[in-house]
Each structure stands twice: as structure tokens, then as C-alpha cells.
Amino acid sequence: MKRRAFLKTSAGAGIAAGAALTMGGYEKLWATSSSAAAADKYDMVALMGGSPDAMFDLGIQELGGMGNFVQKGQKVLIKPNMGWDVIPEMAANTNPLLIKRIVEHCIRAGAREVYVVDHTMDNWVNCYKNSGIERAAKSAGAKVVPGNSESYYHEIEIPGGVKLKSAKVHELLLETDVFINVPVLKDHNSVRMTCCLKNTMGLVWNRGYWHSNDLNQCIADYALYEKKPALNIVDCYNVMVKHGPQGVSREDIVTMKSQIISSDWVAADAAGAKMLGVPVEKVEYIPIAHKMGLGNMNLDSLNIKRIKM
Amino acid sequence: MTSPQLRRIRIVISSVIFFCFFMVFIDLSHVIPSGYTNKLLFLQFIPSFVKFYNIKTFAATGFLFILILTLLSGRTYCSFLCPLGIWQDIFSRIGGRIKKKFRRYGYRKPFTILRYALLIITLIVTMTLGIYAITLLDPYSIFGRFMTFFVKPLVILINNLLAGILGKFDLYTISYIPVTGYTLAAYSVPAAFFIFVGILSLTKGRLYCNMICPVGTLLGLLSKISLYRIKFKESACTRCGRCAVGCKSSCIDFLSYDVDITRCVDCFNCINICQDNALTYSSVISGRKEASTDESKRNMIVASLLLLFGLPERGSAQEKPAPKPKKESTVKENRTFPVAPPGSVSIEDLNTWCTACSLCINACPNNVLHPAVSQYGLSGMMQPVMNYHKSFCTYNCTVCTEICPTFALKPLMLDAKKLTQLGKAIFIKDNCIVKTEKTACGACSESCPTKAVYMIPYEGNLVIPEVNSDICIGCGHCEFACPTTPYKAIFVDGNEVHKAAKKPENKESEIKTPVDFPF
Q1: Distance from CA of A293 to the nearest CA of B (A)
Q2: H-type alpha helices, B1-111
Q3: Partner of B370 for a Cys bridge, out of A293, B148, B387, B456, CB 3.0 to 4.6 A?
């Protein structure tokens, strides 16, 4: 079966599934069809040895190209980690080259608009600037949007959340059709690792609540929210292995020249933990999310494409 | 000179100056470089004067220029350069629009006793007690506070309204800016002055400048011997009185052909009003008849100048009471000292040199600087203090130290600032989420730029914060990030005198570059 033909059938199946579940919502329908398409090939693509942009080029090709995840006329939200006022070499923020390349792929796939946003930890203007992401994303044609004020955030419900039953999320998450999660893999002082699931805190306004109400459970709970990422692209080019998530100096950084791409964020987090050398069960939110059925942390049972460049 | 151009030149220059000050204080996106701000502030009399005495170099001699300018041209400073003066001119104009009355001003007798008394009190207080009187009465600082407390919030509200409208159209070129509110008490002094100066300027022109302002009074004294001034050509005058009515300073007594030069701010309105060209702005030498010197008045000027220049010998040897520690028994965060901004060196230095113009409060990109109410005691009212409940000091930033017009905040290079310890983080274990809730948190350690706050094993898989005060710089990010309420589980206790923090040490990681996937 040719890929295009397959896509057509799977999209049809997606529509049928969507209708059958009477859930409606364009983005859900889309998520169904894309995961169906990707599942046919690989659950995850892991790359090593290239530059961040070259690895992504190859990785997304293995998953059938960006057209599998972004359709013509859709609005795309890219959520990097650019929460810290440091230079790219410090690897506290996602690699700007990678973000640029992802934006380019989205636009080539026919995205109507690509947005980049983060609710930063440090002063947002400095973060956007010094992370290099603002310039990189804009040069590729994305809109880089502020997330510094509560007025950008809207209350959403999280049905089934154990501790986190609602949150205030950035309006762009609600307005866009496709959500692409692009965390950078880092050590984290209290939850041991920050990667895909934890990156969502940068789309939330009232995250202080998470810290005071069982952080690990809240991180997993948030993943229940219906607007899930179509893709998770984990930047493991330079990895902060200690003193995370901010880092003190270059000694905290190990160059791993790697990348993990998956639609399953629990699986991508599990792979990230292995890269950091942290036992998966020690990153508490991963087993919690796994048990809640939000993804699969057992990497052995997944179809992983490993590429060395 | 009787040219109507004089007034036009005054309006153009003062508009430019006012616009520049407006931009410097508003600067919502923090784009104005500090070098520009410094140049603009160079010619502000009091800031430049205080800076001169603070650092005792001739790099800050703007006030000398003003003195010379006054000797040459009279109180042109008040009309051309003083932002508060220009502010009042704008108000007077508005006042004129509201109440179109022929006899707006007219000659009024000077408040001689009051204004000289205030000048002398300001001098005496400054020399014996400290900077309070200057803080209260420096026109530039008063203007700064007007901008910070009243104008800027208004501009932000308009900005946010625009941002909201543009946001609806998917445009994010203007971003929301949170309005920083201060403690209500901090508004008391600026509000009182705002109302007082506002009413006076709306109805009585420059009365504030000629009754209260010590800079106006001082320059007025100097202008008694100024070279250029407004004069009557008695032969041409028809005694119509229009000049007196149009004089913002109410200083023209046309019946006796007299212009009170100590109150004249050289606005040149009278020259324009006079239809008979009977008023000129010209040199004293040209039309001098018989100069009658008033020795006592000259002595007064000399004496006041001497008093001013005697200022640096004050203070340093004098024992000043330490700032009142903020002790509130109900508060668990037991701060011995408030946290003074970077570059202030010590709380005492800040209290000595800061005129509370609030420029730093505006310039801070993180809005961590707030006007103090009682944190420093009475001596430091309205001076900047770090408010770590509202924000924190950005690690990579030295803006406040770059723009201080009086050098109350001394310039710090970024590397030096990163090692300047403003205070020390203190951990209150009994407040901590990890202990009370038995769940993970680590918000404090996550935010710490030097990892002075780090996590150590606690119960089970849990980790709990610990502080290494040697490398803590007191930036307050931990305190800001701590989610506990009403009291934080970690807070910064200010250093009375700022110290040097140790450089954080870091070792190479044990994890090496992988050669294969670990999964």
C-alpha cells in the first residue's frame, strides 16, 4: 500500500472513529489519524550523532514526514523549553536550530500559522532573546508569542485528574490544531528529570499549585487533558546532567548529540530517563502516567527505530 | 531681544526634554540604553549635585553647568530643563483651557520668608540629618515619582487594552504588562505632592517653583546677578498690564516697571504678549544705569553656596541609627534587614545617597524594586527595596546600577554583580511542602542560579532543600518561587552591608558522551 493511499484510509478510519465516539473536535480527529499513521511504522525514532536539525530531518522522514502530523491550513503550536535566561550552549533551553527546523517543516507541510510560546521562569523578554529561539523561530516564519501575563491563560477542566482537576492554559493551546512538544532533556533537582510531560508546565499559568499539591501527580494528571501533543521531539544534543533545570556552568553539560521523537510522551520520557542514567521508576511521574494509561513506559515492548549518523 | 522666537525655542526644547524624560520613565519594553538615560540626567541639578558629592569626582559636574547657566541667563533651567517645571507648564496650559479668564495670574508678592526658610531648612536637614529634605523636595525626584506612581500605570493600562484588542486579531506585537501595585502607604507622599503641585499649577502657574522648590529658590538667588534677564523699556511701555496677567510666575510689577528676577523662570511669555515691544531679554551690561549692590544679598548667596559645598563633610563620621529591622512577631519569615538593591553597597549608603526618584524602580525589567515604606525606617521612605514576594532579581541584569542618577546604586559589572551577596537565603523546614505534605516540590532549588539552594535526600524518594550561604547571592528567586502561603518556606534575609559571595564550584560530570542508545 502506498503511503498516500494508506493515509487516506487511515484518515477515513479516523473520521469514523471520531464520529463513533461522538466526541467531535477537529484536533482530536487529527490526533487519531496521525497516531494511526505513525503506529504503522514506529512508536519512536531515536537518533544519534548528527546536528539537531539534521537528526530531525532524518527522524521525521522515518515517521512519514511532517505532513503526517500537520495538514494544510492548520495552526500549529510549538512548545519549546525557553524558560531560562541563558545562552544556547548552557542547554537549559531547547536548541534554537532544532526549533527553526521544526518550524520550517511545519510551514512546508502547509501550516497556516506556527506559534512558539513558553511561560518562562526568568524574565520572558530576556529568555526569548538569549535562548536564541525567538530569532530562530521568527526567521523560519513562526510567530513568537508572549506568555507572561495571566490574561493569555484560560481555565480548562481535567476530568479524571487525581490532584490536578483544572488548570489555566495558554490561549494558543486552545486555538491551535496541532500541538508539538519540543522539550530539552535535563536533570531536575526534585523530580529527577524534566522532559516531555514536565515541559507542559510552560503552558500553564498557575503552576505554583502543582508544586504545593504533589508535583509528580500533577504532572501526570495534566497529561489527561485532551489537547495532547501530536509529536514530542526531545532535544538531547547537549544534556544538562546535573544542577538542573537551570545549570550553573558548562560542567553540568554533556554533549550527547541525540534526539528522541515519538507521539507517546510517556515512552519518550522513559527513553529520556535512560539517557540521563536515571532509573525510570525513580522519575515518579512516569510510572504514574503509565498506570493512568497515558502512554507506555516499557520501551522493550515498543517498535523503536534507532539511527546512528 | 524681543523676538517671539524666544518663547518658541523654549517650548520646543522643553517639549523635547519632557518627551525624553517621559520615555525614560515609561520605557515599557526596556529598550532605552542606560548611556542615554545618564546623558539626559547629567543636567539635572540635584541628582548631579548628589552624585558629585557621593563619588567626589568631576565626572558629575552637570550642576556646575546649571550654576553657570543661571549666572548667564537666569532661571532658564526651570523652564527648559526641569521636568517638574515643564510638567507644571503643561498643567497651567490645561488650567487655562478649562478656565478661560482674562486675569489669570497678575502680580503677586513673593513668599519671601517661606521660600528662604525652606531652602535653609533643606540645607540644614541635609547637613545634619541626611537626605530626607532633598528626597522630599528635589523637583526631578518628585517628577520621577509622579511618573512611577501615576503616569506609568495609566500607560500600562492603555497598553494592555491595545494588547487585548490586537490579540483578538491574532497580533502579538504588543504584549500584556502586569501592573505593579505597591503598598498603599507608599503612595501617600507622591499623592500629596501630586495633588498639591497639580492644583497650584492648574490655577497659579509656577507658584510651587517660587514658594516651595529649594532649587528654584537657590537658582533665583543666583539669577540676581545673572547677565541676561527680562527688562522693561520704560519708554515703550504703555502700562497695559498684559505682561503681568500672562506671567506664570506672577513676578511682573508693571506699575513700577519691575520684574522680580528671583522668580522669573525665563518662559518668555511676556515678550510675546507685549504688543509694544516694551519687554526685552537682554544683557544687564548693555543698559546698565547705576548698579546698586546690596551687600547683604550677595553675602546670602555666598553663604548658601558655601553651605552647599560644605555638604561632604557631614555624615561619615556621624553615628547614624541602624535601619530598623522589620520585626513582626506574627511573621515567620524573620527578616533582620530588608534587602537593598545591588550596587547600593550597604543599607546605610543607600539611605544616604538615594533621593527616591524611583528611576530604578521603573527601569527594573523584573519589577522587583518597590518603594520602601517602613523597611528602612523613616530614613529610607520611598527608596527602592527588593520585594521578593512579588518578583526576584534577574541573574544576568545590572540595569538599576547603570542608571542611578546619584550613584546611590553604583555601577556593577555583570561578573561582579553575580558575586554580590545582597542577603542570604534562609530555609524554614517547618513550612516546606516536602516536610508538611510529604510530596516533591523543589521550586526553590529549581530557580536558584548558583545552586546555593540544593536538594538533599529526605524520606524515601523525596529530596528537601538545603542552603549553602557562601555561594548564595540573595537574588530572591527561591523566595519568589516558593509556593507556600502566607509565609514562605525560604526567604532572603538582607545583608546590612553587601558581601562578596564565593564563586560556585562545579565538577565535570561523571556521565560521559554516550556511544550507543541506553535503550
Answers
A1: 21
A2: 5-26, 34-41, 45-55, 62-73, 76, 83-98
A3: B387
Of B178, B451, B516, the CB nearest to A248: B451
- Overall number of domains in chain B: 2
For residue range B455-504, what is the model confidence (pLDDT) as tens digits? 999 998 899 999 999 999 999 999 999 988 888 999 999 999 999 999 98
| Alpha carbon distance A248, A227 (integer Å) | 34
Same domain, B300 and B354: no
The answer on pLDDT for B100 being more than 70 is: no
Residue B129 lies in a domain: yes
Residue A72: all three cell numbers together: 494544510
B49 shares its domain with B184: yes
Residues from chain A that touch B175, judged by Cβ atoms under 8 A, are 146, 148-149
For residue B212, what are the contacts with CB-CB under 8 A and spacing of at least 6? B114, B115, B118, B137
Q: Does B397 lie in the same domain as B302? A: no
CB B419 within 8 A of CB B410: no
Q: What is the dihedral of CA A97, A102, A106, A108, to 10 degrees?
A: 50
Whether residue B307 has pLDDT greater than 70? no
The chain-wide mean pLDDT, for chain B, equals 87
Residue B31: the pLDDT is 87
Task: Closest CB to B454: pick one of A146, A189, A241.
Answer: A189
Domain that holds residue B23: 5-311
What is the ipTM for the molecules in this complex? 0.82
Chain B positions touching A126 (Cβ under 8 A) are 365, 394, 396-397
Left (φ > 0), alpha (ψ -120 to 50) or beta: where does B432 sit? beta
Whether A18 shows a pLDDT value over 60: the answer reads no
Q: Tell me which residue in A143, A208, A274 faces B518 most closely, judged by beta carbons.
A: A274
Q: Would you place residue A15 in the very low, low, confident or very high pLDDT band (cuts 50, 70, 90)? A: very low
Q: What confidence score (pLDDT) does residue B301 get? A: 60
B residues 348-387 near A, CB within 8 Å? 365-366
- Say which CATH number the domain at B392 has: 3.30.70.20
Q: CB count, 10 Å around CB of B427?
A: 19
Domain boundary among B286, B311, B336: B311
Residue of B127, B142, B130 lying closest to B353 (CA atoms): B130
DSSP letter at B284 equals T
Domain end (from B311, B334, B368) = B311
- Binned at pLDDT 50, 70 and 90, residue B299 comes out as low
A182 φψ region: left (φ > 0), alpha (ψ -120 to 50), beta (else): beta
**Count of CB atoms situated within 10 Å of the CB of A31:** 23
Question: If you average pLDDT over residues A202-220, what whole number do you get?
Answer: 93
Is the minimum CB–CB distance between B451 and chain A shorter than 8 Å?
A: yes
Tell me the mean pLDDT in the region B71-92.
Answer: 94
> DSSP state, A111?
-
- If asked whether residues B243 and B383 sit together in one domain, one would say no
Residues B281 and B223: their CA atoms lie apart, in Å, by 13
| B209-246 pLDDT tens trace | 999 999 999 999 999 999 999 999 888 899 898 899 88
